[in-house]
Amino acid sequence: MDVVLVGGGIMSATLAALLTTLEPTWTVEIHERRGAPAQESSNPWNNAGTGHAALCELNYTPERADGTIDITKAVTINEQFELSRELWHHLATHDRLPGGTGFLSTTPHMTFVRGESNVDYLRRRWETLRRHPLFADLEFSDDPAQIARWAPLLTADRDPSEAVAATRAPSGTDVDFGALTRSMLDDAVARGARLVTESEVTRLRQQADGSWRLAIKDRRWNGHRRARKVNARFVFIGAGGGALQLLQRSGIPEAKGFGGFPISGQFLRTTNPEIVAQHQAKVYGKADIGAPPMSVPHLDTRVVDGGTALMFGPYAGWSMKFLKHGSWLDLVRSIRPGNIVPMLAVGLKNLDLVKYLVGEVTASDVDRLRTLRAFMPSAHPRDWELITAGQRVQVIKKHPTKGGVLEFGTELVTSADGTIAGLLGASPGASTAVATMLDLLERCFPDRQESWRPQLHAMMPSLGGEWDDSFDQLVDEAVHSER
């Protein structure tokens, strides 16, 4: 094979869409260990589907020591998400998304805070962001009546003396990454790629000629016992939590020293039409002290397979599994001589995180309801059900002075010869998949950049340095026509 993609999620689907366009004669195989694609992190009920654009997430706009707000990361993530939207728009308008644009729904993004100090911070954040063209439509209010018009569930039955504030970005989106992944993979298959489900890559070794020899297990109940052998010139490991162990087995020096810290999660969900009808937004709050960024509480409108629901959470937890449907031995099997020191260093320096996770694991139904009522005071337990979200594996990496550090973003690991790459980490992951895969193409195929550039610019106009002002209008029209 020219290319083997490990994992049937949004990352592999994005890379397949790009490669089948840029090199239509290449042979591409996609291997997914589950019975269908998008069953782990890309499943819509396993992620927030926010379409992370830094419009509402406070962890992307930290406060500096002098009180000013750093928006550098927010701008970068917003630009990366727009690249994703450009590619999706190109595929949709060229009849390359069999499922249409139903995966994308216009859903305002809001930030909601309580307390005088948080209100002051949110105001300063808004004043800084709105001066940048990408955030020019961001609105702010500390008036409960205005906030009630934006999202009535946030203010109903709330103590009127409590100081509150909110920002609102009308251009926000909700993304069903499961539907999008399946649609992109269907397109890749139509263009010649081969998707194999219940197929697990268990071993891989580089050959003398630089290609990779993969052992692939047939996981079907009546499958072949002997592993199938496949040779590939290039391998991408986009297997979510399963990527770390495969990168370790590859033996590439670039993977040494990496470890993983698994964090699980749960959400409360309601499909009560009376409640759902009162909330049309994704509302993010402020994380508790010691909580990881991925545990920032949020009350979200979700549109999945045409149905609308509300989700609140996540309630973080801890599990030794690296995948929701993985093994309890995943963490133990990931320990190597090269990552013991970084993992121990991270454990000792993040006791507040460990304490937070223990508290979340032992939380009762009453505790979870109390957290929900901080956002939605009128919430009643009869309307909500508890669902298990996806598993996230946060990156642990070596540090020259600290021994090891815990990263909450994503990490693209590529070999020096460009024949293998893998993606570690979690949020904002899916939302910035296109930017990440473009980075992969640049690192692993530098000799093809000049020949690929015209096609890439045609698919994503902002890569050419000139923003397509009509893009947002075109996407909105596609969304509304699908509805």
Automatic annotation (TrEMBL):
Transmembrane segments: none annotated. Its EC number is 1.1.5.4. Keywords: FAD, Flavoprotein, Oxidoreductase, Tricarboxylic acid cycle. InterPro entries: FAD/NAD-bd_sf (IPR036188), MQO (IPR006231). Pathway: Carbohydrate metabolism; tricarboxylic acid cycle; oxaloacetate from (S)-malate (quinone route): step 1/1. It catalyses: (S)-malate + a quinone = a quinol + oxaloacetate. One of its GO terms (biological process) is tricarboxylic acid cycle. Its cofactor is FAD. GO terms for molecular function: (S)-2-hydroxyglutarate dehydrogenase activity; L-malate dehydrogenase (quinone) activity. Gene3D superfamilies: D-Amino Acid Oxidase, subunit A, domain 2 (3.30.9.10), FAD/NAD(P)-binding domain (3.50.50.60). Belongs to the MQO family. This is Probable malate:quinone oxidoreductase. It comes from Cellulomonas chitinilytica. The gene is mqo.
